[in-house]
Amino acid sequence: MPPRFQEPYCAEGCPVEAALGLIGGKWKGILLYHLMSGTLRFNEIRKRVPGVTQRMLTTQLRELEADGLILRVVYPQVPPRVEYSLSTKGRTLEPVIVALKDWGERHATRQEPQAA
């Protein structure tokens, strides 16, 4: 487990906190969602997620890589080509990301009548 999820941040028996720590935040889920479609280069990701700054995108991709959820491949050419894809561990999140997407479409993107 990555150091930032060891005690005291995530007590034993708190897997939800650990999972949300890995994929939580404004951009990580979105990045994982876009990488589900296949390998993408940095600028392709930027085009798909226009609201993220270059610095924040770099930070989030580095964290996802450090946590073993994505793979980063650098090709030694000029200019350097860097590609990102989901790792085997990251692929296990696909049903979770799809479930979040489906839930968001049903509950978060439109106003529903409040139950009495």
Could you explain how this protein is built, in words?
The chain is α+β, with helices and mostly antiparallel strands. 48% of the residues lie in helices and 12% in strands. The chain contains six helices and three strands, in the order ααβααββαα. The chain has helices at 15-23, 28-35, 42-48, 54-66, 88-91, 94-108, and strands spanning 40-41, 70-75, 81-86. The chain has a three-stranded antiparallel β-sheet with strand order 1-3-2.
The number of helical elements comes to: 6
Q: Rg to the nearest angstrom?
A: 16 Å
Q: Compute the average pLDDT.
A: 87
Question: What is the terminal-to-terminal distance?
Answer: 44 Å
Structure classification: alpha+beta
Poorly predicted residue ranges: none
* Major sheet summary line: 3 strands, antiparallel
| DSSP strand count | 3
Helix content: 40-55%
Q: How are the strands ordered across the major sheet? A: 1-3-2
What is the general shape? globular
Classify the beta-strand content into a percent band.
Answer: 5-15%
Secondary-structure element order, N to C: HHEHHEEHH
Write a brief structural summary.
The protein is of the alpha+beta class. It has six helices and three strands; from the N terminus they run ααβααββαα.
